[in-house]
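re: ur question from yesterday

yeah so i grabbed the chain u mentioned. its 815 aa long if i counted rite. heres the sequnce exactly as i have it in my notes:
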Amino acid sequence: MQFPESWLREFCNPPLSTQELADTLTMAGLEVEELRPVAPPFTHIVVGEIKEAVQHPDADRLRVCQVDVGQGALLNIVCGAPNARVGIKVPCALVGAELPPGDDGKPFRIKVGKLRGVESQGMLCSARELKLSEDHGGLLELDASAPVGQDIRTHLNLDDTLFTLKLTPNLAHCLSVYGIAREVSALTGAPLKQPTFPAVKSTLADVLPVKVSATDLCGRFSGRIVRNVNTRAQTPQWMLDRLARCGQRGVSPLVDISNYVMFEFGRPSHIFDLDKIHGGLQVRWGRAGEQLKLLNGNTITVDEKVGVIADAAQVESLAGIMGGDATAVSDDTKHIYIEAAFWWPKAVAGRSRRYNFSTDAGHRFERGVDPSLTVEHIERITQLVIDICGTPDTACGPMDDQVVNLPAPQPVTLRVARAAKVIGMPLTQAQCANALRGLGLPVQEGDGTVTVAPPAYRFDLTIEEDLIEEVARMVGYNHLPTTPPLAPITPKLAPEATRSPFAVRRRLAGLGYQETINFSFVEERWEHELAANAQPIKLLNPIASQMSVMRSSLLGSLLQVLKFNVDRKAQRVRVFELGRVFLRDAGVQNTDTTVEGFHQPMRVAGLACGPTDALQWGRKDQPIDFFDVKGDVEALLAPLQARFEPAMHPAMHPGRCARVLLGERAIGFVGELHPQWRQSWDLPQAPVMFELELDAVLQRAVPQFKPVAKHQAVERDIAVVVSERVTHADIMAAVEQAVHGGMLRSAVLFDVYRPKPLRAGEEAPAGSLAQGEKSLAVRLTLARDEATLTEAEIDAAVQAVVAQLARRTGARLRM
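ran it thru and got these structure tokens back, copy pasting raw so excuse formatting
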């Protein structure tokens, strides 16, 4: 909301400076976002009248003007403006005047000079040269009544200040200059000038038939006919200036009058060309397929959820938002119909946004406009029409006022004790009552209570907290005491058996990964392909078409990061993300941290692609593989021991994917990207990825004391031949099951051997491995705390391992 200070002070003029007034408004909840002077500083510029204008003898585009500036003698000034002519009054910069700074930031000083040999004793100014607007089509023409020689700052009130207020949605009653003046009067005690609306004499009996068919759309509809107006009249400069200082450009006199009253009293209205209305008007909900060309040039299609004003032939206006082009006033308009109505806020809210535009009228009506003053505001508009566009034949019809469904105010009660508790300072009943009376609210006092019947213009007063807010605003937020919190503050300590997400980030960064942060909104195709999620959670209002669903996996986001880097010639990429995923789960109930029907766990995911090592000389360059990333996952989970078992994942290679388990709990997957998706994403190399449940990764074993072993451990190597289908996990499980009594300290696979494929007709050497077999070598470390192991115990343990391997995996010792 932008307005000039001078207009506000016409309604209420407290003994406060501009800055003090701004501070008072801000501390009452009407935040003053900006204070800006109407015009930049300049001096010695006065009202001048051109008495003579002749062609320059040596220049076709220049005129030599004789200008009266009230000094007795006329000034000789050379001017190139196309509208420089005898009789107009314009700003004249005298010799020694300083114009506003130009693009170089330096003020421009006027001196006596010569233009094409003719002396110029000053300068005639345009609005652009004074930094009043961007109009540079000619001189700024002033009103004919402007006193010659008067300082232009005084004449145009250029020492005024523009206030820009940042209003919250509940302050609809402050969307006008008078509404803000009403607040200033309540805050400062300065008298408020009450507007009067004298009735314009009716000299016609003409009434336009109007039928209000939708009472849930329109609660009151008022209007009147005015005939024989002059729409070619000029809008007065004072009105144009005030509109410009509210951020509204002048359009035509009738439109300007309607806009002026909207800024003055917060009442949007509409003026129809009466001759373009077919029959009468009907206020109703739209019908599917109906079209309307608006004043902004857009043609829209309405439906049953949009309110309209229609005549017998077509839709003429979008109710409470914008008029239609078909009945718009023009220079040829002679007869008009002035309309002011009360539109229910819920019937207007959100309608303009459906068509991707917004209007000042819609902004006000969807917050609530006073339904009790439609007639009075039409009287104000009518009088301005007569004053500006009136002719000797202008005649007004009677007021047609239809009241069909007005909001019934519900009394709201404030408990003084409750207000004191919420505001945080002692309050008396008298203080609360006086604060509310100061706002013009009707108050009834009870035993420790104050009851208010909200006036028609206060749509925001519905519950007790609304009244408490009004009392706090009147007290002034800057006067509220600073009270420290009374509740004891105790730190919430994390269990010792967990680590923080920061520690996980630091661990992954230490492994060479870089963190990324991505949107939780992803492309629907990713969910179908990478997560096999046939029913992803869709957004009602996505910010972009490719971000239409909530992700159930972090892998798609990491692949997008990889693709972005690979396309920019990145050779080696290692990235990770800690983020939330979104899953459907009917078992989840609504709480402070959950949403019914949706599970939102945290996960950690990583991706590696390119060479194993950064550029270096010590080892041969080789691409990263499954086991590199598997080792990173083990390092991330350490000291917990994870197990890996073959698994299937929609995003990963069927033969190079493993499920990660901690104990018996599956916590995620690690694997190479599926060849199909590698081709789909056009990647030169398949990345290796992992995704784990973050709560499992945060777990850690609490350190416990263990004495240092006093006896020497022994090592034994076993090489066994097994089928290709036997996994490392199968071997380790058999070894651990075979050795009892805590003798087994560790078992490590240190060698894998497979025979070379035989050529056609070639026979395998005697004793060699058959096709489909492999040799695995395992080193056992054995020890006992009580004593050194004997050879018999060692041999027994080794034989038990061999026997168990034979039983569980079909292994045989390799000779």
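noticed a couple things. The chain has 21 helices and 42 strands. also Residues 499 and 698 are 5 Å apart (CA to CA).
anyway ttyl
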